[in-house]
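Q: Structure tokens for this one, please.
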Amino acid sequence: MTPDIEIDTEDRRGWMGLLARSDEADLLHLWQSFGQAPGFTWLRAPEIGGVMVRGRMGGTGAPFNLGEMTVTRCSLRLQGGQVGHAYVQGRSKPKAEAAALIDALMQTELAAAVQRAVLVPLEEKQTENRVTRAGKAAATKVEFFTMARGED
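A: Here is the predicted structure, written as tokens:
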């Protein structure tokens, strides 16, 4: 068993969110190019289910049920004892498995290598997509103004 590495909760929340939001093709391509997957045992094999999405009017009002969303979740344990979890939107068992493996590896001495090879390129891709989307939205922006007629 490898020694425990101190993991900051906010850092883990960040990389798990990044993995969950990532495009499946990008994630799987980067994961496969990283190398051989480590040995692991399933704690919870990938399973598909639904979750209720809740919202709040204006972000502060009373919660209400917005609708259902399909998710895939799984949990695994590496041979070194680290546990990885994943919840991803949609019905992709391979994406959930890759995300859980990456989560577990980020708790090992391979964290820096995984971050360079997988997480940094995913973050760059998501930033690029956000900038492109913002540019398209800005191109459709309409400025409204009112002219005064001079009458009181």
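A few notes: The helical segments are 9-21, 24-34, 93-105, 111-139. Residues 53 and 67 are 5 Å apart (CA to CA).
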